[in-house]
Design goal:
alpha/beta; 17% strand; 464 residues; 38% helix; eight-stranded antiparallel β-sheet; single chain
């Protein structure tokens, strides 16, 4: 089933000479260079290739009322089709940029040879097309704009500038003066505004997923379990069955702070996506999002507003294990901090669940961690089986609780503690014995105390 994409539709408007084409080309270049998929079209939504440029838009005589009405109906059909599964739909794009847009007929009917009495019909048929998420009005000094091209008089340029303000009144828009600054400067302002619109559209599209556990808040732009499973992997059979029947609660995200922060982070970092899933922590102070691009690309965005530098610690730990031999950790794509908010963008790791890992591979990973960091060791901090992927290489995710020193036995203890169904006593004894042989000898007593439970104080002595 075809559905409209999440890419915002941005219309660049303004009279001839305002610099629409030059600014749009630069905006598209800037966004594309940062990884954003830009879909660009003109007044007739058939892609970038259009007919010959109109050099004398007001020279041709207006059609009659009947001919104007038929022309509007034909254009409306093109817009409707393009809004469903064409260039205006936003499918497989991150931003849709259109020059002029449907309302250009209302502002400048002479250009389209519309009979004056057909203008109200053009207004009414605007409802058939996808409504723009925002307009970017390019203008400035009317005299300067009129001097750039001899197609329109000074009075006509001024009239069109006022008309665009009128027809977009009450709708999201921004005005940029292209006569007071360069094309590059205008494009930067436009690109930043597009990012804010993109964030707003994503935040509104994220809806609560019913059936998720109360301790977490799960949101998604899709009801597909394939998307939500990227951030939420149920451990119980009941939750796995419930996920098969999940549905999105109507009414958006109900003002979720996590959704708003994640949407802002994804847009500010220019991360491409077709669908997004967000899971918020029980403390409501940080969230993890998966940005999915069809058919099978994904990345993760972590946003933390606790101001405790958790993601900075994670980034530090990830840099220290980049050259690991026995396991893979997510590669850092971007890391930003500011205003008490940390944002970490990571590549995705894939594989089977951590409950399928064999003992030798498990012990090899734990041994490398114990000897890493120049011999000081690294502690993952949350070495639960759900943070382990088993594939060609073992993958470890969620390094937020990592410590850049070895806390003897803690990672193995966490694995044993969370393993589904528990680990048989014989297997546990073999794991512990082999682990103690592979870590630095000076840490073996503390690790033995924690793993055998003979000294309860050991757990409190080595807290992160």
């Amino acid at each position: 089933m075809i559905r409209r994409g999440l890419a915002p539709l941005i219309v660049f408007a303004g009279p001839d000479g305002a610099g629409k084409s030059a600014v749009v080309v630069e905006v598209a270049r800037v966004l594309t260079a940062s990884g954003i998929r830009v879909s660009h079209t003109h007044f007739i939504p058939r892609g970038v290739r259009q007919g010959k440029p109109v050099t004398n838009p007001h020279d041709a005589e207006a059609r009659g009322m009947v001919s104007s009405s038929l022309a509007l109906v034909r254009r409306a059909a093109l817009y409707a089709l393009a809004s469903v599964n064409g260039v205006l739909s936003g499918i497989r794009a991150d931003v849709v940029i259109q020059e002029r847009g449907w309302l250009d007929q209302v502002v400048d009917p002479k250009r389209y040879r519309l009979h004056p009495s057909a203008v109200p019909i053009a207004r009414a048929l605007a409802r058939v097309s996808r409504r723009p998420d925002a307009h970017i009005l390019l203008g400035g000094d009317a005299e300067t704009i009129a001097s750039r091209k001899d197609e329109l008089s000074l009075s006509e340029v001024a009239r069109q500038l006022d008309a665009w303000r009128t027809v977009t009144s009450g709708a999201p828009r921004i005005e940029i003066s292209t006569t007071a600054q360069s094309v590059d400067a205008s494009a930067r302002i436009a690109a930043d505004y597009i990012r804010s619109v993109r964030a707003r559209r994503l935040s509104d599209a994220l809806a609560r997923i019913a059936g998720s556990p109360r301790r977490v808040s799960l949101h998604s732009t899709s009801r597909s379990g394939r998307i939500t499973s990227l951030v939420y992997r149920p451990t119980s059979v009941l939750r796995r069955v419930t996920r098969l029947f999940q549905w999105r609660v109507p009414g958006g995200n109900h003002g979720s702070e996590a959704c708003a922060r994640v949407a802002t982070a994804i847009s500010d970092l220019d991360i491409p996506f077709d669908d997004v899933a967000v899971i918020e922590s029980p403390s409501r102070s940080h969230a993890v999002a998966a940005a999915f691009v069809y058919p099978d690309q994904s990345s993760f965005v972590k946003v933390d507003w606790r101001a405790d530098r958790a993601l900075e610690r994670e980034a530090t730990a990830l840099r220290q294990v980049e050259e690991s031999r026995t396991f893979a950790a997510p590669r850092i794509l971007q890391f930003r901090t500011g205003g008490g908010v940390e944002v970490l963008h990571l590549e995705a790791l894939h594989g089977a669940g951590g409950d399928t890992i064999d003992d030798e591979r498990l012990l090899s990973v734990l041994a490398e961690l114990a000897h890493a960091n120049g011999g000081s060791g690294i502690t993952h901090g949350d070495f639960a089986y759900w943070n382990i992927f088993v594939g060609e290489r073992v993958g470890l995710i969620d390094w937020e609780e990592a410590a850049t020193r070895l806390i003897p036995g803690q990672d193995l203890h966490r694995f044993i503690e969370t393993y589904p169904g528990g680990i048989a006593p014989g297997r546990r004894a073999r794991l512990v014995a082999s682990y103690l042989e592979r870590i630095p000898s000076e840490h073996a007593p503390a690790a033995r105390a924690l793993l055998t439970g003979s000294v309860s104080q050991a757990t409190r002595s080595f807290q992160l």
